[in-house]
């Protein structure tokens, strides 16, 4: 039994690193400990489906080891949290170590969904962590044909990166277009066009019914009976919050750890941040965001709230991006699939669209239009009438 006290951050990704950094920036001088189930230093995930997969880099570390030494941040790696006793403020790790916390910040991210009916064959991958990206890259080196199941952001990026490695790709999506549930059908169709132009066989409105092979995957059968040869399958059908280890904690969990608008969870001295956290929106509903820039925004709110300091009063405009081929797709604001979409520019590859809800500009989505996307920030923040941007 060991006790340490101070702030414990469970999770070894972006949210853990940013929170630890913010604690020191906010002049918290007590002990800070990061507990991660991974052996790596906290690292960045966006390159995993892009530069790492395309073998352009292996360096995704967010901060070098010296940063943690210099800032007196203890890293407990390769020993994840198994449970938490919120009444007694105790954390138990996978190896049975018990730790006492003054404040606990949960930053455990997501677990990729798998398809339980798929057999256990070589060549079937998911992509959430560094080791999975390297494993996929190694097999992609000798693969001829990949089937990517799911055309969300990660599926689309993987399809693009595999094309870059010279692999034939079939992208299978049960919805009518890629990204349809996030950005709606109009933008989804433009994204499908982009992939088709790069030689991806995009098949929408159809799912996968079966995967076959002996030792390794050889065949994928679609719902419509089509049989596809494949020596690589990547399942990109989304993820769920990594909260299984909290099953007996008594914490309120509903599509993530339910928090107030400062990241405070339902038990005293427990907080949550990043992909695993469902924060209360200023309009009163709960929102769980799975995007990179949200993490730093939340750290800037959570840490001062935890330390009893003033929290920022400005609300940042949500932002995320996705790199597919040479096109950076950027989303600013809160575009939703059922908004009215105004495509104002389209040159056959690049595009710009404003999203209208209740007469105001709710968001902007651009493909290869960085300046124009960012220019809409103040209008979105102000809830400007849609006519202001369509002008
Ligand atoms: C392949 C990929 C590409 C992406 N590309 C983009 C992009 O282009 N643009 C964008 O905006 N966003 C992108 N994202 C999303 C972005 O990376 C995430 O929003 C961000 O990583 C969230 O950080 P996090 O710390 O909350 O979660 P994570 O980065 O997932 O970190 C969670 C950490 O907690 C660890 N953990 C889990 N359970 C336990 C436990 N019980 N005990 C201890 N540790 C535990 C995990 O192993 C992991 O290290 C991408 C994500 C992925 C996976």
TrEMBL record:
Keywords: FAD, Flavoprotein, Oxidoreductase. Residues 319-387 form the Reductase C-terminal domain. GO terms for molecular function: oxidoreductase activity, acting on NAD(P)H. Residues 7-299 form the FAD/NAD(P)-binding domain. GO terms for cellular component: cytoplasm. Its cofactor is FAD. Pfam families: Pyr_redox_2, Reductase_C. The keyword ATP-binding does not apply. InterPro entries: FAD-oxidoreductase/Apoptosis, FAD/NAD-bd_sf, FAD/NAD-binding_dom, FAD/NAD-linked_Rdtase_dimer_sf, Reductase_C. SUPFAM superfamilies: FAD/NAD(P)-binding domain, FAD/NAD-linked reductases, dimerisation (C-terminal) domain. The keyword Flavoprotein applies. PANTHER family: APOPTOSIS-INDUCING FACTOR 1, RIESKE DOMAIN-CONTAINING PROTEIN-RELATED. This is NAD(P)H-nitrite reductase.
């Amino acid at each position: 039994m060991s006790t340490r006290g101070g702030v414990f951050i469970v999770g070894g990704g972006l949210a853990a690193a940013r929170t630890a950094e913010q604690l020191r920036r906010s002049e918290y001088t007590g002990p800070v400990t990061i507990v991660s189930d991974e052996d790596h230093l906290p690292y960045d995930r966006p390159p995993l489906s892009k530069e790492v997969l395309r073998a352009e880099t292996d360096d995704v570390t967010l901060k070098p080891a010296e940063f943690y030494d210099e800032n007196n941040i203890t890293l407990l790696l390769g020993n994840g949290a198994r449970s938490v006793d919120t009444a007694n403020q105790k954390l138990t790790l996978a190896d049975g170590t018990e730790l006492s916390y003054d404040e606990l910040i949960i930053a455990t991210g997501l677990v990729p969904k798998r398809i339980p009916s798929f057999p256990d064959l070589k060549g079937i991958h998911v992509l959430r962590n560094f080791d999975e990206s390297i494993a996929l890259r190694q097999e992609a080196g000798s693969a001829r044909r990949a089937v990517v199941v799911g055309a969300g952001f990660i599926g689309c990026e993987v399809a693009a990166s595999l094309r870059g490695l010279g692999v034939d790709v079939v992208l299978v999506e049960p919805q009518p277009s890629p990204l349809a549930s996030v950005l709606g059908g109009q933008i989804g169709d433009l994204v499908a066009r982009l992939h088709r132009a790069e030689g991806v066989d995009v098949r929408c409105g159809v799912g996968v019914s079966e995967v076959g092979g002996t030792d390794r995957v050889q065949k994928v059968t679609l719902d419509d009976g089509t049989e596809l040869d494949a020596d690589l399958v990547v399942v990109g059908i989304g993820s769920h919050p990594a909260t299984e280890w909290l099953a007996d904690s008594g914490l309120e969990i509903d599509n993530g750890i339910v928090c107030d608008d400062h990241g405070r969870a339902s038990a005293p001295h427990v907080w949550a941040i990043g992909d695993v956290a469902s924060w209360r929106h200023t309009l009163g509903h709960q929102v769980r965001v799975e995007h990179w820039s949200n993490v730093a925004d939340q750290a800037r709110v959570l840490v001062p709230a935890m330390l009893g300091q003033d929290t920022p009063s400005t609300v940042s405009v949500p932002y995320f991006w996705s790199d597919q081929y040479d096109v950076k797709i950027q989303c600013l604001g809160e575009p939703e699939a059922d908004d009215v979409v105004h495509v104002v520019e389209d040159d056959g590859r690049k595009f710009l669209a404003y999203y209208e809800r209740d007469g105001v500009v709710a968001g902007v989505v651009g493909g290869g239009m960085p300046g124009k996307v960012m220019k809409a920030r103040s209008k979105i923040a102000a809830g400007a009438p849609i006519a202001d941007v369509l002008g």
